[in-house]
Amino acid sequence: MNTHDPIVGRYVYVQCEGKTYRTYYEEHGEGIPMVCLHTAGTDGRQYRHQLCDPDISQNFRVIAFDMPWHGKSIPPADFHLMEDEYKLTTKFYCEFIVAFCRALDLRKPVLMGQSMGGNICLALALRYESEFSAFIALEACDYSPGWWIDPLHHPHIHGGEVVATSVFGLMAPLSPDDYRWETWWYYAQGGPGIFKGDLYFYSVDSDFRDQCQKISGKVPIYFLTGEYDFACTPEMTQRTAEKVKNSECIIFGGGHFPTSEDPAKFKEVISPVLKKILSADPERRGQGSNALSGRSISESRSSSRSERPNEGRKVIEF
Amino acid sequence: MSRYGSRSSFDLEWIERWARKVNDDRILPVVGRFFTSKFVLGFDDTEYLVDVRGGKIQKIAQGLTPNDMGVEFWLKAPSSAWSKFAQEVPPPMFNDIWAMAHPLHKQLIIEGNSLPFWQNLRALTRMLSLMRQV
């Protein structure tokens, strides 16, 4: 007998900043809408485990979309005429997320994003808090410098391999190999320059260090960061959370891509958060039981150089 | 043997054992087929020249001489950082060369021509990860 995932994929046309974006999204479940944001340079496949998890889908309508230029969402029609390289801006990112939610007629969804999708939660909490009922910011902080670099998009360097390999170490060594390499694969499939362009938002255009205190706290923000995240360290998340009203900070034994690198571990850490969101919004839960039991998901499965000896040195030929 | 990071020095004998692990690896001939370069691994003030052709190490040497032309890049870190990197399960911030090199952490210094470094990042990452099996 054939086995299918319960995920359904569709395309929706989203208007943003005067352009139309044919946008791919996948969804499953019923109840509180929960929109999921992928990391830089990848796509919504990072949420395939959560989309399939009956403990989540019985209470949440889980929706993961591919940002323009990513996954199965295409670039705008005139992209070949652009006079600058692709750069994701804070303004566009915010407006697109809101436009996508409106295009699907979602009312006050929960927004869950990781990495750049986590950082944008801060901007949305500042600018569009009335549009959302809760933020789950995975691997997020108020400032994450150092990633907007040319080697990630260079004609002499294989973009897919170098992009994927440069993020591999962000994952925890004990996350399952299969899932770590699946995550590597998502990165290897990104369009040329898209990872780097997303990192313009991540490292350059988004600095919320002086803005976090201005978040009203009307919408709860849950920060979750893995201890192996060297781009957004636990300390960086903790410092951010301390500045944000009505926030919680959870540090766990994982890495930068919790939804895809170790979905079983992620379920352990996200279930208490989802329970809180459910108990704060009981009317909108799905028709299933309120389990979120924590059982395994279905698939669970100094730059000075040393003195150089000129003679008597040891050399080994192979 | 290196799981708990007890190693305090990386001598030539250890580097040789690592090089033999590299040359016995069955993945590197695939992902490192075009990895031909000379680079230097620096542990504190000790440098080892690593001469790679087609993903296999042809020669290692302690220290550099004027005859060592064509060295392309240097990866230098304190032995305390390499020691953590080489643990079977390395601790956070030491599990990856980019983690150690990232401006936030500054444990690893990358010098020289960074182009071949980036071009061969996948094979180089695999190669260095084999330190965990030495």
TrEMBL record, chain A:
What is the name attached to this protein's record? Alpha/beta hydrolase
Segments of skewed composition (Basic and acidic residues): 302-318
Q: Do you know which SUPFAM superfamilies this protein is assigned to? A: alpha/beta-Hydrolases
Q: Looking at the Swiss-Prot or TrEMBL record, what is one Pfam family this protein matches?
A: Abhydrolase_1
> Which controlled-vocabulary keywords does the entry list?
Hydrolase
Give positions of region: Disordered: 280-318
Where does the source fall among the domains of life? Bacteria
Question: What GO molecular functions are on record for this protein?
Answer: hydrolase activity
- Taking every annotated instance into account, which residue ranges of this chain make up the domain AB hydrolase-1? 33-147
UniProtKB/TrEMBL annotation, chain B:
Superkingdom, according to UniProt?
A: Bacteria
What is the name of this protein?
A: SCP2 domain-containing protein
Tell me the classification of the organism that encodes this protein. Answer: Bacteria, Pseudomonadati, Pseudomonadota, Alphaproteobacteria, Hyphomicrobiales
